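User: Let's play a game. I give you a shape written as tokens, and you guess the letters that built it. Ready? Here's round one.
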């Protein structure tokens, strides 16, 4: 039974990945980076609103787009891969605090918990000051 469940999960991840990376049925645009030269990411309202309280609240208006200039393309793509199919890339310790802030912004509580645990497990004597300097108090 576990193999079947893994297969179902793999297929679900593949299907949602195809949705995110394809062009079918996308009904909403997220613009990131700067307003003079924004980068557009097309997405599905239903998926965003079902996975993120931030988007659930924001998408209640009849708008076809949102501008989030506080985020860059890479950050937004990383969060969208988590929203769509539960995958998040922890490339290095440098982006953990940034991802934590983004997870808080989008009200992704499970992701926030995952990142907090990752940060706690990553802190040691040699990198403590690096983490501490990035935290805004």
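Assistant: Ready! My guess for every position:
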């Amino acid at each position: 039974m576990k193999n079947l469940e893994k297969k179902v999960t793999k297929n679900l991840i593949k299907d949602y990945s195809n949705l995110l990376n394809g062009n079918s049925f996308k009904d909403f645009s997220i613009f990131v980076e700067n307003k003079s030269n924004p980068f557009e990411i097309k997405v599905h309202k239903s998926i965003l609103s079902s996975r993120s309280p931030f988007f659930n609240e924001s998408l209640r208006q009849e708008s076809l787009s949102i501008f989030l200039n506080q985020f860059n393309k890479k950050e937004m793509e990383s969060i969208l891969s988590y929203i769509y199919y539960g995958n998040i890339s922890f490339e290095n310790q440098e982006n953990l605090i940034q991802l934590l802030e983004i997870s808080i912004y989008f009200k992704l509580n499970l992701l926030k918990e995952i990142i907090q645990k990752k940060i706690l497990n990553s802190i040691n004597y040699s990198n403590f000051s690096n983490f501490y300097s990035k935290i805004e108090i």
